Amino acid sequence: MTNLLSHFKKIIENKNSRFVLAQIIDSQGSVPQAVGASMLVKADGKAFGTIGGGLLEHKCIEACLKLVDSDNTAIFEVDMNEDYSRDAGPICGGSVKIFLNGRIQNQNNTIKQIINHSQNNSSFYIGININVSSMDAGEIVFQSNKPGTTGKDVFWQAIGPTAKMYVVGAGHCGLAISELASWLGFETYLIDERSLNASDVSFTRFVGRFKDFLQTHSIDDRTAIVLVNKGHKNDAEDLEACIGSDAGYIGMIGSERKTKLLKTNFLEEKITSPEYWERIYSPIGLDIAAVEVKEIAISVVTEIVAVFNGKTPDKTPLKCLKL
Known about the structure:
Blueprint: H1 3-13, E1 19-29, E2 38-42, E3 47-49, H2 54-67, E4 73-79, E5 94-101, H3 108-118, E6 124-129, E7 140-143, E8 154-159, E9 164-168, H4 172-183, E10 187-192, E11 204-207, H5 210-213, E12 223-227, H6 232-242, E13 249-252, H7 256-268, H8 274-277, E14 280-281, H9 293-308
């Protein structure tokens, strides 16, 4: 889930609480977070999200708490170019400009509209008036199309569709991967023919075959597919169902030998082309010498996050994992 949408949902879920939204609207030099990063600060000092951690975040939270009981806005600037000493302030080597919005909790109707609009699974844009001398300072607007030139008063942020993860196989690894993916904000589905025993989970369970699931669920470039079935037969069938799709990530668990055998079969039977096969991440996950189930889940989901963030992960093989 996009960070800003997570903050908006937090505001709606805690309608009797007061918050300040902090957003990086400009930066220069070496800084810990990019423009657009945001943090939601509650009146009790608890913060959600991050604008970079450390002294920068500590100072920003202090500034937010000074605004939290008002309906005011402010520009908070931090210079991180101090010379090194043990008592120095931030020394990262850059500067950031952060907009503090103390009016955020007064705009629940607009926030609800944005949350509802985000469920359309399409890109849109959120703008916030950052002119602190304006009567409209802190006001949120949104629109479906890319905004034109609007001057410097409005800070626009593109919001993409929520990333989805289809985890096929409800063994220990599949369950752990689903839990971690859901926690990270993926719209997560765990798919298996077997009855799923897990209760009190934050993802959606589907009892049935992956091909049946795909009758009612689409695949796009914001979809990650994780094949962690109990055997190679099911993995092969499910891989065939999605290998030609637009999925942003397709990963399959198993050994190097299993991967080579399936590759040979898929190419000889002309199920796919060499170009499409090269999209497959198998063996799945980053090599962090994972042994425990939760470690394996971290290695897999980390690889997916890297791919979705435009990074090319090291495809060093993992050991074959027995489900």
